[in-house]
Amino acid sequence: MSRMAWHGVAGCLMAGLLSGCMPLGVTALGLGGSTAVSHTLNGITYRTFTASSSKVKRAALTALDRMDITIVSTTMQEKTEILNAAASGRTIQVQLEPLTKNTTRMRVTAKNGGFVYDSATATEIILQTERVMDGSA
Fold this sequence. Notes:
Blueprint: H1 3-19, E1 24-30, E2 33-39, E3 45-49, H2 53-66, E4 70-77, E5 80-87, E6 90-100, E7 103-111, H3 119-134
Antiparallel strand pairs: 1-2, 2-3, 3-7, 4-5, 5-6, 6-7
């Protein structure tokens, strides 16, 4: 194998080893500008809002209702509120974690059966939640 080929193989191996579960940043376009929505390699879509957890929860519930996604249950895990929902064979989990009294991290996981993640649906839930909070939906 040539020296160039070894460099390519080494580069691919390093990229794979270093990626782990580190977040991948992506930008999704929202109305009126861009919205930073991040994804991890293990299928979690997340965003931090500058709002109380109660405001983010109200907006998330409105967004899920408008998307015709049914809330199945709500639980608390320490300070994090977890909304479990379902739609068209998908299981959806929305986690609302208050970081401060005016900052809330929202994590959404949507699975299309088994181990297949639906990041498009998870991203849309976050974008719709933001639209509700901005009053543009």
